Amino acid sequence: MNCPFCGHEDTQVKDSRSTDDGAAIRRRRVCAACTQRFTTIERVQLRELVVTKMDGRRVPFDRDKLARSIRIALRKRPVEEERQERIVNGLVRQLEASGEAEISSARIGELAMDALHSIDGVAYVRFASVYRDFREVEAFSKLLTDMRPGEEAELPLPPVKRGKDKG
């Protein structure tokens, strides 16, 4: 493993431990040349997945991109980081277990929306609004209407900010 700070090839593992869900191993390393410390994460990868984009391009699956999207949707929501990691791990396992080497970006988006829908209504709407790229207010309104009854109530309105001299 090359040092990310100086590029030296000789790094030593100082500590290894499993993540909470057991899906990865975190390793603390130290560089023999510059003595900087850094962490690496090792995960099991069952197969190489290729994502087919809407425009026909084929790109390697990027777990980190999926994780970023899930985290952005769940930002400032009451969902702890470990649970977010379990969501991403579950989605990746589903994709790998599908038996398909090529998966459409639409399929990945639908799986992510399903996972978010069952966890947090606000995160679901956030993800869907970007994923579905709404062009009209009516389409966004239909998404909210199509949610299960009572879910609209979970979508809080932002607080009204008032000036100092406004009561």
Structure description:
By secondary structure, this protein is an alpha+beta fold. Helix content is 38%, strand content 19%. It has 5 helices and 6 strands, in the order βββββααβααα. The protein has a 3-stranded antiparallel β-sheet with strand order 1-2-3, with no helix packed on it. Strands 5-4-6 form a 3-stranded mixed β-sheet. β4 and β5 form a beta hairpin. α1 crosses α2, α1 crosses α4 and α3 packs antiparallel against α4. It is elongated, with a radius of gyration of 21 Å. The N and C termini lie far apart (61 Å). About 7% of the residues have low confidence.
Question: Would you summarize the structure shown here?
Answer:
With 167 residues, the chain is an alpha+beta fold. The protein has helices at residues 63-73, 81-97, 105-119, 121-131, 137-146, and strands spanning 11-18, 24-31, 37-43, 50-52, 58-60, 102-104. It comes from Asaia bogorensis NBRC 16594.
List keywords for this structure.
single chain; DNA-binding; zinc; 167 residues; DNA binding; alpha+beta; ATP-cone_dom; transcription regulation
Number of strands: 6
Which percent band covers the strand fraction?
A: 15-25%
Instruction: Report, as a whole number of angstroms, the end-to-end distance.
Output: 61 Å
Strand order of the largest sheet: 1-2-3
Most strands sheet: 3 strands, antiparallel
The percent of residues in helical segments reads: 25-40%
Query: What is Rg?
Result: 21 Å
